[in-house]
Amino acid sequence: MIHHLTLTSEDNAALQPMLTDLAKAYATIEDGELIRRAPVLARQLPTHLLEFLEEFRLGEPSALCLVSGLEVDEQELGPTPPHWKDSQFESPAFRQEIFFLLVASALGDVFGWATQQDGRIMHDVLPIQGHEHYELGSNSLQHLSWHTEDAFHPCRGDYVALMCLKNPDLVETVVCDAGDLDWSVLDVDALFEPEFTQMPDNSHRPENASESTGDPVVDRLRQRSFALIQSWNDDPVKRPVLFGDRQDPYMALDPYHMKMDGWSDRSLAAFQGLCDQIEARMQDVRLRPGDCVFVDNFRAVHGRKSFRARYDGSDRWLKRLNVTRNLRGSRAWRPAADNRVIY
């Protein structure tokens, strides 16, 4: 069951002045001051929305939280960008981006990866010509395999969040909630053992980034990150697939990027049993403009079905945020306490 709240016309009427004022005060969603202020600004969101988000955060009633009903004028948006590079400047969706940032900041701290979309905090999810068959969120003609977001990394987020701006073909996001699995028939003890090899996913590879950000310090730190990820590819680290409470466990797996060489028969059987259950219990979610969905990255896996992109400005266009409830947990990976980018 999806934890769902629909904004009313009164909610939208109350939100628009605040969003408009903030859009005038800042030039881009990547403005460091806006991101720092977001948790405080989020307190101006409707009280019933904040209570709804807190119930999701603490009570874990579902692995999927959907806030729908935000007003989106698709004429005002204009064409879907052909690429994520530079799309944050003079964004026609700036007010919607601010709302998305504030809602996410009510759940935790947003953060970015130096190795993804040049260290941006808010990502664009859109089809890129030439990526049709890549295992990336910018693909289209093949399914984006279901996974835990950034499963390979110890600093992965608690939530991966998506805001829909356009989805004319109602392309399905697919999600499986751990609460829907029958743990009693799975070898949970085996899945808690650090016997599973999780490789870095393709979105963190240097060929999917700009050659240079223009900042030599940032470029040096980013190259260090790429080198670390390459070392994990060369010498993969074994980790458990499950963690937390053995009666109601959390998950971290990305089968497409898992190297199964050397796994024991028991580990292989336990992993296959889990994957079979996930496949059988996957549900489709069709995001519509104005929908903001928050996937609990500890309690769900997600992916996306294939579609045929047109590259004419009308294609599916989402925004994405990573959210953590423990920003300090990544302090060794960030150059300063208030820096939101993991290197």
TrEMBL record:
<comment type="similarity">
    <text>Belongs to the clavaminate synthase family.</text>
</comment>
<keyword id="KW-0408">Iron</keyword>
<dbReference type="InterPro" id="IPR053447">
    <property type="entry name" value="Alpha-KG_dependent_hydroxylase"/>
</dbReference>
<dbReference type="GO" id="GO:0005506">
    <property type="term" value="F:iron ion binding"/>
</dbReference>
<feature type="domain" description="TauD/TfdA-like">
    <location>
        <begin position="131"/>
        <end position="321"/>
    </location>
</feature>
<feature type="binding site">
    <location>
        <position position="149"/>
    </location>
    <ligand>
        <name>Fe cation</name>
    </ligand>
</feature>
<keyword id="KW-0560">Oxidoreductase</keyword>
<dbReference type="Pfam" id="PF02668">
    <property type="entry name" value="TauD"/>
</dbReference>
<dbReference type="GO" id="GO:0016491">
    <property type="term" value="F:oxidoreductase activity"/>
</dbReference>
<dbReference type="InterPro" id="IPR023966">
    <property type="entry name" value="Arginine_beta-hydroxylase"/>
</dbReference>
<feature type="binding site">
    <location>
        <position position="147"/>
    </location>
    <ligand>
        <name>Fe cation</name>
    </ligand>
</feature>
<dbReference type="InterPro" id="IPR014503">
    <property type="entry name" value="Clavaminate_syn-like"/>
</dbReference>
<keyword id="KW-0479">Metal-binding</keyword>
<dbReference type="InterPro" id="IPR042098">
    <property type="entry name" value="TauD-like_sf"/>
</dbReference>
<dbReference type="InterPro" id="IPR003819">
    <property type="entry name" value="TauD/TfdA-like"/>
</dbReference>
<protein>
    <submittedName>
        <fullName>Arginine beta-hydroxylase, Fe(II)/alpha-ketoglutarate-dependent</fullName>
    </submittedName>
</protein>
